[in-house]
Amino acid sequence: MLVCLVLFLAGCSPAGWGIDNEFSGVDKISDESGNEQVKYEDLTAEEWLGMLEPGDFKGYGFTIATSRLYRFVPEEEMAGMVNPVLKKRNELVNAKYNVNIKEIYYEESQLFNKLANAALAGVQFSDLLSVTMPTMAAFASSGYLLNLFSVPFFNPEASYLNTETVKRSVVSDYMYAIYDRTTFYQEDFWCIFYNEDRLPSGAGDEISRIVKEGDWTWDKLMEYAVYAAAEVMQKRSPDYQKDVFGLGSHSDKNGFSISAFVSSGLSLFGDTYHKKLSYSMDSDKGNAAADKIREITSSKAYFGLSGEDASKAFLEGRLAFYAYRVEFAKKVCETKLNWGIAPLPKIDESQTNYLSYVGSSAAGLSVPSHQTNSGRTGMVLNAILAASYVNLDEAIKTNYITFCLRDNDAAIMLSGIFENPVLDIGSIYAKGFDRLSLLTDETILKAINQDVSFAYLFLNNASELEVINSNEFR
């Protein structure tokens, strides 16, 4: 077991995962003389920092206002690998720019007034801000955040960043937050928890095998879910406080539907990086996905409650499957459940990779307006991101493996879940921009809940799409 775990941490690659570059080791290339060279993107955090612009900010206290504690400075009593990595990251940034990173905690409900007052007075509130997506979107639409493309020195195309998550968080030429391992956003990736005791004998091993072979789909999950909910399937009025169900979600049905749709790999707009919003998704594929999700949420096997009611049902052993954030593993591991973890299923066999939906609870990094030295902010932001390269990701995984997960299969599942995050501009910005909500989340939900064709919705939204391109993100 220990040998396999060490191989896992070193990056071994099980066959058939259906995920590009899953568990790939350090790739090598050869120059003309045949000498082995390390690829550019395989530089260490220290090497990346060495390539950034020089600077000395004389011991400046660089403040990050956040609603999430201990993601930028260590918690002294926290066990595991994360604390040493946070400490090392801050030491690297200090050595590069002579700044001392400080974390200031606020409830998100407090932040709006504080940020608004600072903007009104024309003074700096903090150097960086880290809040959840809905709060960030509200700040952006109110003009309290800088467009990151306007921050001097900030490099959104650096190879130490996840190119896909960067591109999918940009609308036209606007980017108000960057989502990266720096902020522990991996803990907000959605996945599937399952209770083996509610499934047929040997189902846990079968699920692990199916996932590794790339054949884990919603159809397969629902086969198991219907089996687990056999009694409820025969009832006219289920009891949500006592009955056993096949599948539940911490989000309500609309939230679950959005996460299932986005994790299918379908995107209403496709590439929005420095491009105007334009519907480009294949309508027929979108309709097929909407039909599949509607079938799931209308099944009697689907648990009708959400939030803490749904979490309680899973923890009590009354749900076979539960869709929620990775961080929920910290609670599940405290129970006596015979449980496992898996990625969100593919919408069907044609989907190439498993994709982990990054929920709206994820916190990014933003730059408040009215910076006293925006050049310094951009340089230190680059340094924080570069110093988080690989090491923090591995530390978070190691903590989960050490303190939460039950076996090697779960460790392999977690690594796959971390591998391919998927962001959606609707999830990121819709709560702050009403027009964008109409064109994104509300459009997807009309297709799922009301069985309206995407082709019709795209045509119907055309004028509103032009308005948002002209007025909101121009």
- Average per-residue pLDDT, rounded, comes to 90
Tell me the span between the first and last alpha carbons: 55 Å
Stated plainly, the CATH topology of the largest domain is called: D-Maltodextrin-Binding Protein, domain 2
Low-confidence runs:
1-40
Question: Which helices and strands appear, and what pairs or packs with what?
Answer:
Blueprint: H1 2-10, E1 28-30, E2 36-38, H2 45-50, E3 60-66, H3 82-97, E4 99-105, H4 108-121, E5 128-130, H5 133-141, H6 163-167, E6 190-195, H7 203-212, H8 218-228, H9 230-233, E7 245-249, H10 253-262, H11 283-297, H12 307-315, E8 319-325, H13 329-332, E9 339-342, E10 356-357, H14 374-387, H15 391-403, H16 408-419, E11 421-422, H17 425-429, H18 434-439, H19 441-449, H20 454-460, H21 462-471
Helix pairs in contact: 3-14, 10-11, 10-19, 11-19
Can you walk me through this structure?
- This protein is an alpha/beta fold.
- The chain has two domains: 43-187 and 360-422, D-Maltodextrin-Binding Protein, domain 2 (3-Layer(aba) Sandwich), CATH 3.40.190.10; 190-357 and 433-468, D-Maltodextrin-Binding Protein, domain 2 (3-Layer(aba) Sandwich), CATH 3.40.190.10.
- It is built from 21 helices and eleven strands.
- The chain has helices spanning 2-10, 45-50, 82-97, 108-121, 133-141, 163-167, 203-212, 218-228, 230-233, 253-262, 283-297, 307-315, 329-332, 374-387, 391-403, 408-419, 425-429, 434-439, 441-449, 454-460, 462-471, and strands at 28-30, 36-38, 60-66, 99-105, 128-130, 190-195, 245-249, 319-325, 339-342, 356-357, 421-422.
- The strands form four sheets. The protein has a four-stranded mixed β-sheet, with helices on both faces.
- Strand 3, helix 3 and strand 4 (99-105) form a beta-alpha-beta unit.
- Helix 10 (253-262) runs antiparallel to helix 11, helix 10 (253-262) packs across helix 19 (441-449) and helix 11 (283-297) packs across helix 19 (441-449).
- The longest helix is centred in the N-terminal third of the chain and has 16 residues, at 82-97.
- It is globular.
